[in-house]
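#dry-run=false #mode=assembly
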Amino acid sequence: DAKTTQPPSMDCAEGRAANLPCNHSTISGNEYVYWYRQIHSQGPQYIIHGLKNNETNEMASLIITEDRKSSTLILPHATLRDTAVYYCIVSLLIQGAQKLVFGQGTRLTINP
Amino acid sequence: DGGITQSPKYLFRKEGQNVTLSCEQNLNHDAMYWYRQDPGQGLRLIYYSQIVNDFQKGDIAEGYSVSREKKESFPLTVTSAQKNPTAFYLCATSFQMNTEAFFGQGTRLTVV
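#status=ok
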C-alpha cells in the first residue's frame, strides 16, 4: 500500500491560507489522493480527493504535482473551526471497495 | 454522520466478554468498513464489505468478526480473543469505487 508522509503539526493564523503538504512517492497510477480531517473524538470528515488534476470545492483546494509524488491541501481562509488533525490518504481499490490507509496526520492549529 | 448511525457512543465491558458494535446506514451505499483508532494514532482497517453476504479482512482482523446480512447493517463483534479491545471504533460507508467515504461518530469501547 502506498504510504504518505505528513508533518506532525502545523500552525496557521486565522484568516490566512493554510497549506498542508503530503508526500506519497510510492503512489501508483490508479491510486487517488484523499484528504480527511478529524476533530477530536468525532468521525473523520471528507474534504477533497483527486487523481492527477488539481481540484477545488467549497472547503479546500488540492494541488497534485505532475509526477504525483506529493500534494498540498489548501484551506484558503482558515478559521478557528478548521483546527483538527488532517489526514492525507492514498486510496487503494480492493475488490471494488476502497481501502483507506491512514497515517498519523498533521495536527493543524489555527491561532486567533 | 449524515445517515450513518453507530450505537452506543460509549460502551463498557468486562474482560473476556464478547461485545457487538452496531453500524446502520440509510445512504444506500454498497461498501461498508470498520476502523479502529487508538489514542494519538491514525485509523486502522479491521474489516470491509463490498456487498451483502460478503466481507474481507483488513489489516487487523484478528479477534474481530463481522456479518453483512443486510445492505444497511454491518455489525462488528469484538471477541474475547482481541488482546487490546479498548479503542475508538469507527464505521464508514462509500457508494462505489473512488468516491468519498462517510464516517459515523464512533463508539468508544472500554474493557475493564
